[in-house]
Fold:
Amino acid sequence: MAKEKSLIHPYIPNSVPEIKEEMLKEIGVKDVETLYQEIPDRLRLRRKLNLPEPFLAESELKKHVKSLLSKNKTCEENLNFLGGGCWQHYVPAVCDEIIGRSEVLTAYTGEEYSDLGRMQMYFEYQSELGELLGMDVVCLPVYSWGVAASFAIRMASRITGRNEVLLPKTVSPERLATIRTFCQPVATPGHIDVKLIGYDSKAGLLDLEDLKNKVSSKTAVVYFENPSYLGFIESQGAKISEIAQANGALSIVGVDPISLGMLPAPPDYGADIAVGSIQPLGVHMNCGGSTAGFIASRDEEKYVAEYPSFLISITGTIEEGEYAFSNCTFERTAYMKRDKAKDFIGTTANLWALSAAVYMALMGPHGFEEIGELIIQRSHYAIKLLSEIKGINIPFSPNSFKEFVVNFNGTGKTVKEVNKALLKHNIFGGKDISQEFPELGNSALYCVTEIHSQDDIKKLANALKEVLAV
Amino acid sequence: MKEEVKLRKYHAPVWSEPVIMEMGRKGERGILIPEAEEEIKAAVGDAESYIPVEMRRRQLPRLPELSQPQVLRHYEHLTQETLGMEETIDISSGTCTMKYSPKVNEMLARMPQMTEIHPSQDEDTIQGILEIMYKFDLICREISGMDQFTLQPGGGSQAIYANVCVLRAYHDANGELAQRNEVITTIFSHPANAATSSTAGFKVITLMPDEDGYPDLEALKAACSKHTAGLMITNPEDTGIYNPRIEEYVNAVHEVGGLCFYDQANLNGILGIARAREVGFDACHFNLHKTFSSPHGSHGPACGAYGVKKELAKFLPTPVVTFDGKKYHLDYDRPYSIGRVREFLGNVGVVLRAYAWVMSMGADGLLEVAHTSVLNNNYLTKLLMAIPGITRPYAEGKIRLDQVRFSLEKLKADTGVGTVDVQSRMVDFGIQSFFLSHHPWIVPEPFTPEPCETYSKEDCDYWAAVLKQISKEAYSNPEIVKKAPHNSTIHRMDVAALAALDDPEKWAMTWRAYLKKGGKRK
Structure:
């Protein structure tokens, strides 16, 4: 039998048989199999893995993967009005350029000396976001907004020694599901009770009376969002924080950072901790695969001590005037304290923090102000055009930011039907929330950002007219 | 290593970059925002009128104001001051599997068919992504022997957290959650196993190593009881030695009704060699940013693919991808599911890269990965063990797989130069600082290299030659090592600089905090 041709793979230099022989000789063993002698035979997989035939040549691999990707329809070729926690904003070319550079794309856990640049970028990310949020402490990203809210709620629970969170029913159901996971089942020690607060059916705002009735000496935290999941601006922020704090609870606000050129920094209406997503800050949607959550707070020891995540501090070196950057109170983290740590952390989403750092530097104060204005103008233009369509009703809209609820009850069509029909016009209609919020009837959550031109919005309105007229 | 390896004359880039917050001039712009169309302005008026008075921003955020070329230059300098895996021989970051992330996969992942997709799009418009996720699930099933995977967790720790949530749901469904309140793990398992268990509400029992470095089996048996929810363990652990009695651990936990989770963040050395199923594990996870080549991204985005046996599949996070023979779907109707550990489907871009990598390897390629990573490790070990001051604790004579936890205890005793000093000196030769060990240091003065399949024989030779040089320096002129780095971007942080990191009066996570605490501009 002819000797089987061995696979020399371009990603594996030592797949060359002669090199392998040389190395085996150096080690002093006969073959690679000998190196596996510690694994008992009964645990060995004595067959070839049953995997699809590979595309060893790069040209063929590329063709294969492209053919799969071509089955996706993009928000570039189509007009997209989906939001709800993952939003289509413009990503400046410089952001892609920087995070595409191999030095940061392929870095990982290098120390301060070899990876000074990466550490400085982290610090700059924290510093810039701190200016938007009006907060002195910002951590490196956790996995998502929902996870950031969950960790912040757990921080508040530890700070106050209490085990209850109050939050409005208008919170994003996906975030709420994440929060529920982190608040643990009743049967486990450390369980945090999740209680929902009602909202005003006209404006969507949190029901302050309901909050006052439910808040108590058990309440660790009141969590609310601004703008809310349903798009409106929660104008009672200061009152909500006041009620929370008067009862010894903390106020945590979830914010969309792209709104912060127009909306106040969360501490201005009493927030003790702010959380949110940095995906709007120069990060592509990636089918929801580029979420990254932030947590920010005042610079107080009792807050800093409760962060589960990495906090990068500026410091110095033996050289006068030289900056260095390193982990603040690393002792807190799971890497040092294991089960005695403040929750857990690991590899999360730092590349997106680097993109956000570049984004915030490009935008500057005026960029944030202007983009906020533009988003509000364009989304309210869309609200205006859509509300003129027969059968469509837009609740909660007077004070919305970039998202708004579109109710189709009067049209005789379901959101599902409308969206299927819009698809034929190359439009991705708003997110169907009729299951998430049955009390809102047959409704969709629409999102309009700076990427939508007047023509795009008109196209949507015209398509809707056509679809609903049938 | 027959001939002397010539060490490179390396010097890291030094740009002395200011912090972006102290750069630029008032009025400069990095990017322009379009203005609303005249018709829109006429129709809706002033944007501020839509914001309740009490919710208007009074003062613009104090962000820097810079032109685009200056922003770009600053960040290019900072990237240059970062030693990426691609720029160096990153054998150093053991347990992290710093393998080559193929450029073609990166290119594919940046196509708009990946980046410009919204997760709530109609299923018909994301069939490609769903197909990739479904097929990657099948690939993971075959590699592990598990029956179904979720790709929702955004990292290894989050996958481990998903696992403890499944543990919880399983015992809850059996009405035993209140009673089963203990998770058993080992000191050489990743700290996330202990930490996530605690976050999920479990008490944690940690097994210490026996004389050979294996988790103490007798201690495990003694810990097993009606309170045991599960075991979370790695094999081989960071020592690199495959535990041949692993089934006994699994059986002991199964006997008392607990579940067994196999932390396979790194399974590079045993791809296609040994699987979780044959050992009897109920669940396992793979880090797609390690074994499966997705770039580490300066610490994410990542993915922890988490797989379980069919009895546990109903508990997996929602949604899961299904296939009806024609089309791919997202199944949200899962009454027993633990719910969510995060929003959306998971880091699908990472999954795409991992899928493309497996498809560029095939079964033979994956086996070759395992073989060469184990070969490289044993070759490097041979070189390192010849260097004065380096020892390899535990199980003398037993062959390690794809990594080893070495010790510089002897070097420290002989010369006063410890592992942190060596770590700082390495970067002077253009090599990434090595990973020491998670805490606590069971192995004194530890370091843990991992020469995965990416690295050539010459790469291993160079890496070992750097350590040989540093050892030589330690024995002849230890001050060189103790004062390192010398050729790096910055100088050494002294005791005061390090103490500031833990001092509330001095630490500063933001520029605004730094200025408040009397920090000086450059």
User: Anything to note?
Assistant: Chain B has a mean pLDDT of 97.
